[in-house]
């Protein structure tokens, strides 16, 4: 390739770049259902501290995406293989060009969820790789700024699609989520739902009309991020940050120009805090607590990746909920998105153990598979799928009808000589061979046409039955609601000691049995009227006769008040009321 022959010698070898373009790294574009996490390694130059201590190099670069680590304690070498290995002299532009960032940007524009993550020990160059230097200091942009420029350049090229660009910026500090664009001492809650997965509730999202707005989001977040100093890094990040660019697109459906296809792509940049050994960093007080939280979250992340990389465990329980970081990264690790991990390491021999640990972590991550899916509204996705299915069925019907006409004409010929093979049907893939007897071909096509018509008729009958069931269900619901209201009225009347009117039983011609009763003598008069007037329900005659006998006996004797109370209780507890309420 001419382009590779002119590339700077500062990056990895040409063979490594060829590895970056392997089918494994781009299986989605080939129509596969899964995609491996792409992992590259970047080796930073030696820093001032390592130079002062005359720290020697412990890394070698054989080529073909390989990196060799000399382990001084065991006098052995460990070999690791990745998609690309960037040597210390590689520039930010080299990393952008060959690590696969552009592929993820294109995927986000097409509606996928893409994640770019930097991992490594503290002081390994993660933040520099992602965000570059601060404004006014050598002006070295990072992958985030370069990706912004690439995104807006692509937006200008895609004139047939309308995009709305928004952005958010958060940090995970001591297991709490903080909004970097809307600083507040109160942390955000991490919620979960079926459509979004895990997300930060009430996260501030800014609409960005141009690249300057995105640059402003980045600078505002960098200004509010938690940064401390320790022995190994003067500007050590004390939190994990996630900058997310939301790319909502709208495009006309080519199959139906009157409708639109809406997609919800997103591109996330994750700058992880570095793993630390407190003996080296000499952290104390609050810095020590921060280091413990950082190491805990990175440990959980490593456990999740180890289980996802193991074919026997990836279908089991993955402990995403053990850390706030893994909750928010669950979709990126093994969900419906695409991911790139940039493992940043130091070449110094004093950091050999940390380098080996980072490379082992990155090697496991290479075996993790995701299942990228275009992000769309579920209702629109269903509608789009049905439209395409209808189109395929119409094409298949037209094809079969045409074959019937062709074969019907061929039967009239005395002899048919044909060596052509009919094309496959648009949907089923059925292949018909014209070398057979045309009568047999016509019978086969007719059979499929009959099956098609039968299926269409069966489908129409199912729809008709479904409509009938829906209407019956609605009628039953209305009747149920009416009976529930009647039961509620009866219960209220019985509880308040009111008279039972025939209207409560659904019999409107019969006049009311009495006026509502109040406490004292009113209740006594109501029972007299209830006992004297006829009721439409024959099941109550026996009980009313007992009530009349009770009322008659209560006129003579000193137990009138007790008899009245007993009569009221018997009426309230009458099974007839319950029976009427259930009918």
Q: Could you write a compact summary of the structure shown?
A:
Helix content is 45%, strand content 17%. The chain has 583 residues and is α+β, with helices and mostly antiparallel strands.
Provide a descriptive summary of the structure in words.
The protein has helices at 2-5, 14-20, 48-52, 92-98, 101-109, 126-131, 143-157, 211-224, 278-281, 286-309, 324-334, 352-366, 378-411, 438-496, 521-532, 541-554, 560-572, 575-582; strands at 35-36, 38-43, 59-63, 66-71, 76-81, 84-86, 113-120, 162-173, 176-179, 190-193, 197-200, 206-207, 227-228, 236-237, 240-252, 260-271, 338-345, 369-370. With 583 residues, it is of the alpha+beta class. The protein has three domains: 2-157 and 226-238 and 267-376, Kinesin motor domain (Kinesin, 3-Layer(aba) Sandwich), CATH 3.40.850.10; 380-477, no CATH class; 497-582, no CATH class. The strands form five sheets. Strands 2, 6, 7, 8, 9, 12, 15, 16 and 17 form a nine-stranded mixed beta sheet that branches. The protein has a three-stranded antiparallel beta sheet with strand order 3-4-5. A two-stranded antiparallel ribbon has the order 1-18. Strand 15 (240-252) and strand 16 form a beta hairpin. The longest helix is centred in the last third of the chain and has 59 residues, at 438-496. Residues 1-32, 411-436, 507-528, 530-540 and 550-583 have low confidence and may be disordered. Residues 1-33, 499-522, 550-583 are annotated as: Disordered.
């Amino acid at each position: 390739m001419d382009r590779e022959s002119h590339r700077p010698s500062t990056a990895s070898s040409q063979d490594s770049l060829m590895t970056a373009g392997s089918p494994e790294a781009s299986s989605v574009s080939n129509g596969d259902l899964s995609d491996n996490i792409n992992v590259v390694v970047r080796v930073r130059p030696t820093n001032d501290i390592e130079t002062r201590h005359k720290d020697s190099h412990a890394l070698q670069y054989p080529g073909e995406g390989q990196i060799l680590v000399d382990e001084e304690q065991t006098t052995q070498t460990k070999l690791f293989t990745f998609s690309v290995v960037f040597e210390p002299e590689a520039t930010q532009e080299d990393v952008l060009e060959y690590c696969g960032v552009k592929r993820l940007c294109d995927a986000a524009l097409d509606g996928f969820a893409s994640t770019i993550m930097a991992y490594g020990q503290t002081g390994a160059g993660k933040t520099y790789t992602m965000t570059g230097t601060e404004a006014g200091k050598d002006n070295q942009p990072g992958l985030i700024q370069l990706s912004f420029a690439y995104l807006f350049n692509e937006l200008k090229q895609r004139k047939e699609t309308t995009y709305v660009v928004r952005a958010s910026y958060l940090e995970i500090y001591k297991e709490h989520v903080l909004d970097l664009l809307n600083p507040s001492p109160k942390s955000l809650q991490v919620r979960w739902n079926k459509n979004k997965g895990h997300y930060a509730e009430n996260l501030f999202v800014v609409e960005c009309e141009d690249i300057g707005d995105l640059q402003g989001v980045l600078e505002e977040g960098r200004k509010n991020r938690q940064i401390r100093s320790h022995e190994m890094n003067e500007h050590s990040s004390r939190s994990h940050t996630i900058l997310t660019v939301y790319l909502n697109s709208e495009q006309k459906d080519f199959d139906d120009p009157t409708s639109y296809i809406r997609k919800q792509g997103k591109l996330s940049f994750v700058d992880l805090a570095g793993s630390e050994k407190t003996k080296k960093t000499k952290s104390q007080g609050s810095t020590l607590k921060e280091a413990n939280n950082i190491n805990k979250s990175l440990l959980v992340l490593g456990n999740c990746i180890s289980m996802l990389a193991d074919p026997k465990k990836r279908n089991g329980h993955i402990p995403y909920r053990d850390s706030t970081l893994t909750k928010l990264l669950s979709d990126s690790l093994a969900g419906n998105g695409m991911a790139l991990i940039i493992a940043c390491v130091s070449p110094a021999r004093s950091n050999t153990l940390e380098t080996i640990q980072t490379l082992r972590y990155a090697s496991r991550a290479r075996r993790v598979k995701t299942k990228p899916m275009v992000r769309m509204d579920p209702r629109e996705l269903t509608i789009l799928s049905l439209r395409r299915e209808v189109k395929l069925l119409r094409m298949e019907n037209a094809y079969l009808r045409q074959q019937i006409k062709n074969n019907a004409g061929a039967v009239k010929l005395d002899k048919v000589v044909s060596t052509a093979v009919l094309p496959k049907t648009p949907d089923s893939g059925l292949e018909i061979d014209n070398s057979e007897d045309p009568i047999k071909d016509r019978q086969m096509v007719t059979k499929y046409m009959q099956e098609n018509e039968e299926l269409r008729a069966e489908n129409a009958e199912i729809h008709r039955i479904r409509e009938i069931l829906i209407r019956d269900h609605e009628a039953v619901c209305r009747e149920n609601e009416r009976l529930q209201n009647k039961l509620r009225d009866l219960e209220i009347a019985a509880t308040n000691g009111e008279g039972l009117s025939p209207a409560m039983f659904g019999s409107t011609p019969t006049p009311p049995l009495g006026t509502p009763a109040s406490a004292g003598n009113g209740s006594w008069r109501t029972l007299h009227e209830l006992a004297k007037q006829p009721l439409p329900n024959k099941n109550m005659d026996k009980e009313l006769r007992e009530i009349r006998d009770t009322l008659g006996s209560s006129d003579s004797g000193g137990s009138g008040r007790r008899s009245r109370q007993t009569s009221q209780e018997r009426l309230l507890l009458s099974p007839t009321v319950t029976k009427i309420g259930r009918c």
